[in-house]
Amino acid sequence: MLNLFRSPSRGVAAGENGQPSLAARIARHSTGLQEFSRHIVGREGLSILDLGPTSPKNIHYITTLGHKVYNEDVLAAAADPGLLKPAENGAAVLDVERFFAENLLFRGHQFDAVLCWDVADYLHESLVKPMMERIHSVLKPGGVLLGFFHTREAGAAAPYCRYHITAADQLELQPFSRFRLQRVFNNRNIENLFPGSKSLKFFLARDHIREVLVVR
Asked: How far does CA 150 lie from the centroid of its chain?
C-alpha cells in the first residue's frame, strides 16, 4: 500500500511510535545519500518515493525539507503468501501480474526522487526488472534514484537492513533477518536495470555496498 506523509509538527518525527528497535543500529557515512541530498536540499514541494519499510527518521528528514514522501514497502508486499499460485509442475510460483495489479500503483503521479535502497538484491527475480521499469516510468526527467547493491565480497549471508536517514550523509542500518540476499549485481547488471538514464554514479562503501545514484 502506498502511503503519503506530509510535513510533521515542528520538532516531532512523523510516525514515531516509541517501539523498541528490532536490533542494534549501525551508524555509517553514505556518499550516495550525500549526492542524493544535494538534489533535494534547497528545493521545496518535491515528491519522493521510499521503497523500504516505513521509517520515522526518513519521514522526518524529507518532510522537514518541505517535501512530500510516499512510502511502499515492496519487499513486505512481495512476501505475501497470497501471491503464490500453483505452476504446471505443482510447485508454487509468484503471481507477477497480480503483484503489479495490487502494488506500485501510482495513478498518474510522478516523482522527483526515489529511495530504492537494496530492494533489488532481496526481491524475487521475476519482479526486479518490471519493478525498475515501473519506477523509471514515474520518475520525472532529471529525477534521481538512490540504490544500494551488495558486492560479492559481502557474502550470501549479508543481512537485510532497514535504512534510517539521520543526516544528509548519515544512515543508521538496522539488521532485520526477515529476508535473504537473492543475487549480486555487477556494474553492467546495474546499468542494464536503468536503460536510457542520463547518468549513473557508483560509490563503493567499506561494508561491501555499491551505492548508485541514477539520474533519469
From this structure: 14
- Check: CB of residue 57 under 8 Å from CB of residue 36: no
7 band by pLDDT with thresholds 50, 70 and 90: low
Q: Is 117:165 a contact under the CB 8 Å cutoff? A: no
- Check: CB of residue 158 under 8 Å from CB of residue 175: no
- DSSP β-bridge partners for residue 162: 174
22-215: which CATH topology? Rossmann fold (3.40.50)
In angstroms, the CA 70 to CA 60 distance is: 12
CB 70 within 8 A of CB 48: yes
Domain boundaries, the chain: 22-215
Query: What is the per-residue pLDDT across 19-39, written as a single tens digit (0 to 9) for each?
Result: 444 578 999 999 999 999 999
Contact 9, 157 (CB under 8 A): no
Mean predicted confidence (pLDDT) in 143-171: 93
- Parallel, antiparallel or unpaired: strands 111-117 and 161-167: unpaired
